[in-house]
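About this split. The held-out portion is used to measure sequence recovery: a designer receives only the C-alpha cells and must propose an amino acid at every position. Recovery is the fraction of positions where the proposal matches the reference. Here is one held-out target exactly as it appears in the evaluation file.
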C-alpha cells in the first residue's frame, strides 16, 4: 500500500469526522513522521497525524501517558486551554494507535497560528517566552512523580559527554580526523558546562515538569498573547534552564541550527530580553532567584549539549537524527558551538 492509502486507513481508525482533501508531509522535526490532513468536511478541523519513532522513543507508553496527563491537566484549566492542541482518541477510546508494529497519534490542527524556524521580531520572541513560561506555570501543580522519565539523563551534560567519549573510542580514525577541531572546541567548555549541571543536581535548582524541546519552532504563534505548545514527546522532570536554554539557543540567533556559514550567525540581545520578559511574566512568580539568574546564559548550556549530541551521532554513523547529507550533523555541531560561544561572551 502506498503512503497515501496507508494514511487514509490509519486516519479512519481515529474518532473524528474527516474526509481527507490533501495530505502534506511536515518536515521540520528530526525524529517523527508528521502529516497535515486537510479536511474537506465543512466546519470540521484539519488534523495532524504523526508516527512516533520507536527507535528513539523506546517507551512510547510512558511518553504518551505523559502527554495525555499534561494535555488534560492544561485543558481542565480554562485560562490555559489553548496552550495545547487537543488529542483525538481512536475509535477504541485510546490516545494512540498501535497498528502493524507502528505507533500513531492524532491531534487537531491549530488554525491561525504558525511556527517560526528563526525569529522575525521581538514580539514573536516575547510571545514564545510568554507561552513557554505559562506552560511551566500550568504544570507546576502536577507532582513530578506522576511524570515518567522515559529518556533518562536527557539533558544531563555529563551523560552526553560520556556518550561522546564512548563514540570517539569506538570510531575509526579517519572519521575522527574530520572532526578534530570540533572535538577540541567541545573540550574548551567541558568544565564550565559540567559545573552548571553539578550546581543544579546538588540541590541548587528545584525539579520541575518541563517540555524539554522548547525550540522556537515548537510553539505556534498567532495574534493573541499566548501561543500553543506542540511536540510533547519529551515532557519529563528537570531543571528550568533546560527549557529556557533550548528556547534561547534558537531565539537568540538569526540562523537555523544547521547553517554551515558560521560567520553569518549573529546574536540579538533584544530578542533574548524579549523572550526572558515574556517567560518570567508567564511563570507568574514561581521561579527562584537562582533560576531567574540562570536564564540569560542557559542558551549556552543547551547549545553545547546539542553540539555534543550532534557530533556523537556523526561519530556513531548518523543513526539518531535524520540527515540530508553525510556531514549534516557536523555542520549542526559547529553551528551550535558557535551559538554557545556567543552566549559565553554575552553581556546581559
Ligand atoms: C530533536 O525531532 P525534534 O526536532 O522534535 C531532539 C531534540 C533536539 C532537536 C534538535 C527526542 O527534536 O532534543 O533539540 O532534535 N529530540 C529528541 O533540533 O532527541
Ligand atoms: Mg521534539
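Reference sequence for scoring:
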Amino acid at each position: 500500500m502506498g503512503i497515501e492509502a496507508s494514511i487514509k486507513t490509519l486516519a479512519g481508525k481515529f474518532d473524528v469526522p474527516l474526509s481527507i482533501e490533501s495530505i502534506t508531509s511536515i518536515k521540520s522535526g528530526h525524529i517523527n513522521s508528521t502529516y497535515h490532513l486537510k479536511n474537506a468536511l465543512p466546519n470540521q478541523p484539519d488534523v495532524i497525524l504523526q508516527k512516533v519513532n520507536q527507535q528513539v522513543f523506546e517507551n512510547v507508553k510512558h511518553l504518551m501517558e505523559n502527554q495525555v496527563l499534561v494535555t488534560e491537566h492544561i485543558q481542565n484549566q480554562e485560562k490555559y486551554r489553548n496552550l495545547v492542541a487537543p488529542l483525538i482518541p481512536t475509535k477504541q477510546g485510546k490516545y494512540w494507535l498501535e497498528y502493524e508494529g507502528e505507533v500513531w497519534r492524532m491531534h487537531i490542527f491549530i488554525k491561525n497560528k504558525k511556527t517560526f524556524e528563526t525569529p522575525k521580531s521581538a514580539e514573536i520572541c516575547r510571545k514564545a517566552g510568554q507561552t513557554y513560561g505559562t506552560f511551566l506555570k500550568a504544570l507546576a501543580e502536577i507532582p513530578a512523580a506522576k511524570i515518567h522519565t522515559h529518556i533518562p539523563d536527557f539533558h544531563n551534560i555529563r551523560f552526553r559527554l560520556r556518550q561522546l567519549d564512548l563514540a570517539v573510542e569506538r570510531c575509526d580514525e579517519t572519521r575522527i580526523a574530520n572532526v578534530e577541531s570540533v572535538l577540541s572546541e567541545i573540550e574548551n567548555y567541558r568544565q564550565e558546562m559540567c559545573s552548571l549541571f553539578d550546581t543544579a543536581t546538588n540541590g541548587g535548582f528545584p525539579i520541575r515538569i518541563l517540555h524539554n524541546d522548547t525550540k522556537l519552532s515548537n510553539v505556534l504563534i498567532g495574534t493573541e498573547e499566548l501561543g500553543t505548545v506542540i511536540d510533547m514527546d519529551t515532557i519529563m522532570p528537570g531543571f528550568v534552564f533546560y527549557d529556557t536554554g533550548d528556547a534561547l539557543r534558537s531565539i537568540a540567533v538569526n540562523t537555523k541550527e544547521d547553517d554551515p556559514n558560521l560567520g553569518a550567525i549573529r546574536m540579538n540581545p533584544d530578542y533574548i530580553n524579549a523572550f526572558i520578559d515574556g517567560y518570567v511574566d508567564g511563570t507568574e512568580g514561581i521561579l527562584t532567584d537562582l533560576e531567574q539568574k540562570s536564564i540569560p546564559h542557559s542558551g549556552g548550556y543547551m547549545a553545547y549539549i546539542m553540539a555534543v549530541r550532534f557530533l556523537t551521532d556523526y561519530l556513531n554513523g548518523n543513526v539518531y537524527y535524520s540527515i540530508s547529507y553525510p556531514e549534516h550533523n557536523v555542520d549542526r555541531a559547529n553551528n551550535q558551538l558557535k551559538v554557545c560561544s556567543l552566549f559565553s561572551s554575552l553581556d546581559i
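Annotator remark: Residues 289-315 form the longest helix (27 residues).
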